[in-house]
Prior knowledge:
The protein is mainly α. It contains three helices and no strands. The chain has helices at about 1-105, 110-120, 125-130. Helix 2 (about 110-120) crosses helix 3. The longest helix has about 100 residues, at about 1-105. It starts with a helix and ends with a helix. The mean pLDDT is about 90.
Amino acid sequence: MLFQNHHLYGQVEKETDRLRSIELRLERLEATLNTFMQQVDKRFEQIDKRIDDLNRKIDHFMTFLWIISGIFTAIMIAAIGFAIWDRRTAIYRAKQEVIEEVDRKWNLTNVVRALREYALGDQRLADILKKYGLM
């Protein structure tokens, strides 16, 4: 029986050593896992920081695009406004020049004055001039 107890004591000692060994490995594994988790957390923080930086850059870029769009729109409106103003001015000047040229060439002002004067004595001519707004 003593031999049997001694044998059991040896097995218990082996199992105790084995459990201590497993416990030590678990502690090392836990420490390694904690270190790994800390490194993963640091990586995620770095990635979050990079994403925040990218978002800030994208926001700045979008603001810049809005500014460029506003400037382009203002330039286009100014160019179109200038073109319309210039066209009206040019048409008005051309119209005045044509009127002056026709008046100079055919002396229409004097012709209309002469017809008005003649219409004072001729009722039919007076009616025609009134009809066309020349009287």
